[in-house]
Amino acid sequence: MKKSQSFLKRKNIEISLKRYGIDALGAMAQGLFCSLLIGTIIDTIGKQFGISFLQDTVANIAGKEYTVGGLASAMSGPAMATAIGFALECPPLVLFSMITVGFAANALGGAGGPLAVLFVAIIAAEFGKAVSKETKVDILVTPLVTIGVGMFFSWLIAPLLGKFAMWFGKVIMDATELQPLLMGSVVSALVGIALTLPISSAAICAAFGLTGLAGGAAVAGCCAQMVGFAVISFKENKWGGLVSQGIGTSMLQMGNIIKNPAIWIAPTLASVITGPIATCIFKLQMNGAPVSSGMGTCGLVGPIGVYTGWVNDVASGAKASITALDWIGLVLVCFVLPAVLSLAIHAVVKKLGLVKDGDMKLA
What we know:
By secondary structure, this protein is mostly helical. The protein folds into two domains: 2-164, no CATH class; 179-351, no CATH class. Helices cover 74% and strands 2% of the residues. It is built from 16 helices and two strands. It has helices at 2-10, 17-49, 52-55, 68-74, 76-87, 92-109, 113-131, 138-178, 180-196, 201-207, 212-232, 234-246, 254-259, 265-281, 301-316, 324-351; strands at 59-61, 64-66. It has a two-stranded antiparallel sheet with strand order 1-2. The protein is globular, with a radius of gyration of 22 Å. It starts with a helix and ends in a 12-residue tail after the last helix.
């Protein structure tokens, strides 16, 4: 037992919820952002502004045409796996081998590829780290083991994980369609909470392909957390805090939440309210990239994702046009209501003596 523990420590293999559920998951979201999401944004810009070189085919691979944005999106598997490998502190040969592992896991995982990549990349990375620099022919052994293990588990579990992810995501989306009031609140609150916790709400939404009304509820919940914390802590953190939380991340408040969980009441209750407003009143849907559902106002990715979905729906004929009501709903759900509701609720929380000035001061 001691030898095993010593070996794992020497190889920097840490089997823990933090390493896999926080570090790896968060890195996966960054990989998705730098591939699928950026590719989607590039395509949207090209279409909306009529930029020809962003709309033109730049590559034809196996009969499939790719634009600049399309090529970026196509690299989501390798980007996710490499990001996970970086988070797990893989040696260079293991890290570079993750490109192949990610491509295989994402391809075999189908629509649920992100979840498959998460599991397969972790397994392949740890096996690769275990054999790294253990032989005189490391240049051959480490890539062979990393890629071999990655390919095997991609074949073994990626299709099953992909199907499970899509099934679970569909259950959530179908339930939201059937019960938009209840599920709007539940999805909005849970995804919003995940956004503020040191885990990745974006990766969770991507893994389960959360789009449609459920995706709209998720956007509402994330915006409520980010905008909510930004405005209720303005007195302590001024404009810098407003920007860093409002278009950065509400995760900055985690240290303060641990000290006084009551500061979380206002943004969370705001998400409970804005979720069903999004699903029942404005029928706000996220039909862009699923990862956008869990981004909120971070870089304005959530609202941009909703807009991208509108553009795609209009192009496909699923939506006649983008209406004034669409824009009103988006602005109210993502910006105005989170601010107004959070301020009102927080005022009550402060009056009850649960929160005092300085509790949300950022270091």
